[in-house]
Amino acid sequence: MLDGALEHFRDELGLPRTARLRAEPHAMLVYGKGQFFLPHQDSEKHDEMVGTLVVSLPSAHTGGELVIDHAGESRTYRASKEELTLVAFYSDCRHEVTPVRSGYRVTLTFNLLAGAETSAPEAGPVTELAHCLTEHFTTPATPRYGGRDLDPPNRLVFLLDHEYTQRGLTWRRLKGDDAERAVLMRAAAERAGFEAVLALAEVKETWDVQPSDGYGWDEDYDEDEDPGDDQLTDLIDDEITLGWWTGPDGTGGEPISLYVSDYEVCTTTPNAALEPYQSEYEGYMGNYGNTLDRWYRRAAVVVWPRDRAFAARAEAGSQWALHELRDRIQAGDLAGARAAAESLAPFWNRTSSRAGLLGDALDVAAGLGVAGTSAMLLKPFRVETLAREHAGGLAAAAGRYGQEWTRDVINGWFERGHHYGTDRHEWVEGLPGLCEALRVAGRPEVVRLLAARTWHWLDDELRTWTTTARTDARRPSLEMLSSPLTQLLEAADDTSREEITTALRGYEDTVLECLMPALRSAASRRAAGFDTIARDCAQRLGAIVARARRENDDWSIAWTGCGCDLCDTLGTFLGSRSRRIFEWPLVKNGRRHVHTQIDSAGAAGAAPDPTKGPAIHARADENRRAVHARQDRAAHCRDRSDVVDLDVG
């Protein structure tokens, strides 16, 4: 009896007639009163599993219905009290068992396994589809929202209807109409000289929706409300990403991350006709209407021309591409490796900068023997990914292409994205170890290049912060730069170290806020170069101590401003030793400018001075509070005049 039922289910499920369906026992389930099973999908427990067979044994009970959802439709199956009931469905179908109200529901479940190959499609449709594929890959692409035509697409992504797991994604285990369509697409690709693989796609769509109440704008939308009955009107946006694909022979597979453009996608069944695995509704927000985000998981057949196969796969898997190039070089196919590497140029710059990729990229670059292509392979990386373990690869590439090539590559790594942040500080912590490894590899010139570019970055940071007036912002930033400075001096050679210490003597005295913490850090390690820095700090501190102290009746404050008339007027008042109050009529814009200049100067423009510090800063803060208090009062006297009272008292 079961053999006949399996043939029936094979045909009803849309599997090829050449497929042999087998039922593998899985479990016996007994549901008592109140028991149920929430909506779920069955996991694939076997490489050949395509679905589940549920055999309900005759039993007197109420409730316990089996509800199966697929492609936006829902079917309910009730067991018989007197006969066996058999239901088969694909494993990606969401299904549930409703609560049993009385009696017992007894079922046997089987894993449905499909064997044998699918049948070959007829020649006519294959030839026609092969012609369509050729036309797709030779016609300039047109973006959905207009604009100039682009180059012909590099791939075609044909979305299938069903969900699959990575384990279950093979040509032999495709379900229903997917099997027939995929076999046809694969045969047409082969005839046209293309390659085809299977992939898993994540699809997100954003729709404009008409609420089910018909009022259009849903300003009082309840988050717990089910938007399932709302009408989809216009597709606002969609996004398709491939996350996994198989090898061309259908075996194996690898994780990928590839965004697919709209002009590279086609499907027989639109997403809206399928059941999303997740939906998020957003009501009226004032500048746009009600929207519904829907997510789907679909399999796909991905096709590309055989002569573009390397680039098509490399765009999705940079690790794979580098390994493939390395294998070709090691196999002696240098010409093939060079041609394949050059094909990466249009998109390689978008490769993520990961330390795990840099080692492979350096090895390939050193082996290619083409300076321009090798530099292109290394361009996407940032210097923060460069570590001690990369010293050998960098030394080999630098030895092959020379110092100017290496300088350009390193400069590009430092400028990549202009993103510094704390990760640049953390990277410099490992610079001494990296430079030591490069010296061992026989490349001291690379050490000098790295030290020079690191100092270029650190010099910019120091100049920015030593000229910042606000002590609360300047001091912690300069102290944070003390550790990178210590590590750089330890990593540099004698020549570079001397250049750095000479440059440090040209900074303002505020550089002490970096140098003093650096000296304390270096004292325990006796780092080279700090004797010179220590002598410079001693000279600076001695000069500061030797300065004349401020007299008790001296209320003057050093001030530069921006050089405008307002700042000059303010500077005259602040420079007076005796004036303590200044009533100053100002319009709104002038008052705002004075506020900004005082704020940017920190404590009323007073530079830190160890010989005057406590008295100066106390009076400066007192003055600043008085300035703001008087300004605030004047700002509220709109019926009189705008007046700024400056009170240093």
Describe this structure in words.
- Helix content is 42%, strand content 21%.
- The chain is of the alpha+beta class.
- A hairpin with an 8-residue loop joins strand 16 (278-282) and strand 17 (291-305).
- The longest helix is centred in the last third of the chain and has 24 residues, at 613-636.
- The relative contact order is 0.05.
- Mean pLDDT is 83; it is low at 216-226 and 603-649.
What structural keywords apply?
disordered C terminus; seven-stranded mixed sheet; 21% strand; 19 strands; alpha+beta; four-stranded antiparallel sheet; single chain; 649 residues
Percent in helix: 40-55%
What is the terminal separation in angstroms? Answer: 105 Å
In total, the number of strands is 19
Report the uncertain regions: 216-226, 603-649
Question: Could you tell me the strand content as a percent range?
Answer: 15-25%
Counting helices, strands and paired strands, the structural category is alpha+beta
Question: What's the shape?
Answer: elongated
